[in-house]
Each structure stands twice: as structure tokens, then as C-alpha cells.
């Protein structure tokens, strides 16, 4: 999940012109590789916002009595579609027998039912999240100066596949040095072709899928669980909220390459992750108390500690890189990737770029940053979620967080 609100898109223009690039030759080569695949956020936002305005003015939606029922129906369809797609894949691969034509007909029918509910589900979930945010006293980023209990930016999201993200890291350390949004629906072959060409520039790269993206309106993937969708919609809205605060604005400068600061990026992503999970849990408990939001882990998953394994891998990789043993680090990661696959955890590519992307979330198993623990401690000592958000939002450096811990 990544941030790029439309109101600050102008910050990226200097990158397109090259005036902010620190390595013009590298950026020129990188641009030539990715330009055929790039996703235009500005164009998507223009089309989507226009559609939202038309819907607001001319829409004649019927009043929905059982809002929770509509949402549950939608996510039941999501699970049915994923299950059927898995069956179709198995039949195509020759691993299962079945009437492929019948499966595909049924898939089309389920997808139509899902599409018919999408707009209403987006509105219902946004309304429910807004209610919980309001109960927490979180309205708009200027509430210190403007005492209006009105949510801003308006919480609007689109349920559709987000763009892919190309993450580029140096090979000798784990750090995100470039992030570029690519087209939705890229095939695995296309992703690996892009990575192969980018890696020839002497870096580590990964094309990764996103669960959401903080455009405006925000993207939220349309194949997640109910709880994941609620958390992601909240997560991306919080990015837009923080863009009006010092911490979020500095993150914008990092994302556009104007002023790189990996610690600021980690603070942003982690605080947003902490808050969105808390809000998501409250929304689910309030509106969907009987709905199973997260799949139960299997016996194998209970026996194998994936989080611990990923932390140990990350620590070992950092040790190799600190000693200048790049080839050994990369060989180790590939060995561990194969081991994880044997344990049922398939990661397409495990490299420096993978950890640079996932390590930004300091509350995730791929991060070894102390920022996660410090933010969790700050949340525990905060009187409320709003107090926690207000405290972190005005921070401008990593040291501010350490000084806030009592």
C-alpha cells in the first residue's frame, strides 16, 4: 500500500523533467525500460473523479435496508470466485478433471453479481469507517484550527485491482531507491522481463502487487477479505489525511524522490498500519460481529512460524550485506525462498527489493526496524487513537519518535 494523493501530484513533475534525479543516467535507463508499462495515476484520477461527480449528481440509488447483508453477500461472492478460479487453474494445468466450459460460465455469472454490488458496497463500507473514525474524534487534518466535525478528505475508494509497483533497491543494502507504478494485470512473464532488464543496471528489483494505493479516490483490491478491505480503505485514507501534516508531507517528498528518507517512510507506513488495523477491528466488531473475517490457519501454519523465519532471514541478509558479501546474501535468499515454498509459503522473488518494500512496515515480520516497537509503545501510552495520531503526525524526524516514548 502506497501513497500519492492527487493534490500533490505536481511534486512528481520535477522527476519527469529530471531536475530532481540524483543519477540521470540510471533514471534515463530505468525510464526506457518501464515507460511501455507505466500506469498513469493522473489520468486514472481524472476519469474516476469525473465518474464520482456524475454519480453524486445524477445517481438515483435505492435505499438499502440490510447494509451489512449486502456487504456480506459481496464478500461471499469474492470467496466463491477465488475458489472457482483455483478450480479452473487446476483443470487447465491437468491436475483436476472438470467441465471447463461450465466452470467459466459460472465464473462469469458470479462476476456479474459481484459487479452489480460493487458501488453500493464501496459506499456502505466508507460510511461505516467514517462512523468509527468520528467516534474516535478523527475528522480532518486541520481540526486544531477549524472546529468542524466533518470528515476530510472525503472517504472514497474504488474496489478494483491496483497498479503493480516496481521497487528498486541497491544490491549492497536494503533500501527503496525508486518506486514506479506499472499497469494493472501485468503477466508474470512481463513482470519478470522488466525485473531482468532493471537488474542489468546493477540493482535489485521486484514488481509487486498492491493491496491498495493512496490516490484520490483510493484504490482497494477487489479480491481481499472483508476485514482486509476495511483496513486497506482506512489505511489509504489515512495517507491522504497525513499528507496535510508534516510527517505525511515529508513522506510525499520521499516518494517523489525530492528528499529521500527511508525512516520517515517507515514511520508513515507503520503508524497508518497500526491505526487502520485498530479501526478495522472496531468496524468488523460493530457491523459484522458474526462474520468470519480472516481464514483460520491450517495445522501446518500453526506448526511453522513464518514471522520468526522471515525476521531471521532478514537479519542474516543484513549481516551478509554489511560484510560486503552480496552474492552470498542473494544465494541465501534464493535458498530460503525455496524452503518457504516447501512449507507452503510461495514468494515469487525474495531479494533486497522485496525486503525494502515490505520492510517499510515496521510492524511486519520482514522488518527489523525498532520503529515498530516504539510506535506500538507510543500507542499504548496515548490516551486515545486520536491522541496517538496527533502526536505522530507532527513529527519531522526519527528522533522525535524516540523522544516521545516515556
Strand content: 5-15%
Per the principal axes of the C-alpha atoms, what is the gross shape? globular
Poorly predicted runs are 3-22
Which structural class should the secondary elements be placed in?
A: alpha/beta
Give the mean pLDDT: 88
Number of helices: 16
- The string of secondary-structure elements, in order, is EHHHHHEEEHEEEHHHHHHHHHH
Number of DSSP E strands: 7
Major sheet strand order = 1-6-7-2
Describe the structure.
This protein is of the alpha/beta class. The protein is built from 16 helices and seven strands. It has helices at residues 13-17, 24-34, 41-58, 67-92, 100-135, 188-199, 226-242, 246-255, 262-287, 299-303, 306-322, 326-342, 352-358, 371-381, 385-393, 398-404, and strands spanning 2-3, 157-159, 164-170, 178-182, 203-208, 212-214, 218-220. The strands form two sheets. The chain has a four-stranded mixed β-sheet. Strands 4-3-5 form a three-stranded antiparallel β-sheet. Helix 8 crosses helix 9, helix 9 crosses helix 14 and helix 14 packs across helix 16 (398-404). It is globular and about 65 Å long.
Amino acid at each position: 500500500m502506497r501513497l500519492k494523493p492527487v493534490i500533490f501530484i505536481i511534486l512528481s513533475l520535477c522527476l519527469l523533467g529530471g531536475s530532481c534525479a540524483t543519477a540521470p543516467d540510471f533514471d534515463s535507463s530505468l525510464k526506457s525500460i518501464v515507460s511501455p508499462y507505466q500506469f498513469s495515476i493522473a489520468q486514472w484520477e481524472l476519469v474516476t473523479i469525473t465518474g464520482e461527480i456524475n454519480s453524486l449528481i445524477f445517481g438515483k440509488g435505492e435505499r438499502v435496508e440490510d447494509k451489512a447483508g449486502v456487504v456480506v453477500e459481496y464478500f461471499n461472492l469474492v470467496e466463491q470466485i477465488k475458489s472457482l478460479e483455483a478450480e479452473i487453474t487446476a483443470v487447465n494445468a491437468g491436475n483436476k478433471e472438470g467441465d471447463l466450459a461450465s466452470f467459466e460460465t459460472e465464473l462469469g455469472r458470479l462476476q456479474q453479481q459481484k459487479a452489480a454490488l460493487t458501488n453500493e458496497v464501496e459506499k456502505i463500507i466508507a460510511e461505516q469507517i467514517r462512523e468509527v473514525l468520528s467516534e474516535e474524534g478523527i475528522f480532518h487534518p486541520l481540526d486544531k484550527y477549524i472546529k468542524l466535525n466533518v470528515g476530510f478528505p472525503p472517504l472514497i475508494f474504488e474496489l478494483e485491482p491496483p497498479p503493480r509497483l516496481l521497487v528498486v533497491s541497491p544490491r549492497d543494502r536494503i533500501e527503496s531507491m525508486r518506486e514506479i507504478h506499472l499497469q494493472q494485470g501485468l503477466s508474470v512473464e512481463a513482470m519478470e522481463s522488466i525485473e531482468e532488464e532493471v537488474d542489468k543496471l546493477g540493482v535489485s528489483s521486484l514488481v509487486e502487487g498492491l493491496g491498495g494505493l493512496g490516490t484520490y479516490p483510493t484504490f482497494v483490491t477487489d479480491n481481499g477479505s472483508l476485514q482486509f478491505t476495511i483496513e486497506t480503505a482506512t489505511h489509504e485514507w489515512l495517507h491522504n489525511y497525513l499528507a496535510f501534516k508534516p510527517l505525511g508531507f515529508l513522506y510525499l517528498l520521499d516518494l517523489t524522490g525530492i528528499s529521500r528518507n527511508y525512516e520517515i517512510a517507515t514511520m508513515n507506513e507503520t503508524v497508518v498500519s497500526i491505526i487502520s488495523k485498530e479501526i478495522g477491528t472496531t468496524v468488523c466488531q460493530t457491523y459484522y460481529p458474526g462474520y468470519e473475517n480472516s481464514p483460520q490457519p491450517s495445522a501446518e501454519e500453526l506448526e511453522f512460524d513464518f514471522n520468526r523465519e522471515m525476521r531471521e532471514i532478514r537479519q542474516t541478509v543484513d549481516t551478509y550485506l554489511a560484510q560486503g558479501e552480496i552474492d552470498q546474501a542473494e544465494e541465501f535468499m534464493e535458498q530460503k525462498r525455496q524452503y518457504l515454498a516447501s512449507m507452503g509459503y510461495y514468494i515469487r522473488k525474495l531479494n533486497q527489493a522485496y525486503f525494502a518494500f515490505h520492510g517499510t512496515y515496521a510492524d511486519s515480520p520482514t522488518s527489523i526496524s525498532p520503529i515498530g516497537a516504539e510506535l506500538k509503545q507510543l500507542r499504548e501510552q496515548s490516551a486515545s487513537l486520536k491522541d496517538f495520531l496527533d502526536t505522530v503526525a507532527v513529527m519531522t524526524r526519527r528522533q522525535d519518535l524516540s523522544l516521545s516514548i516515556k
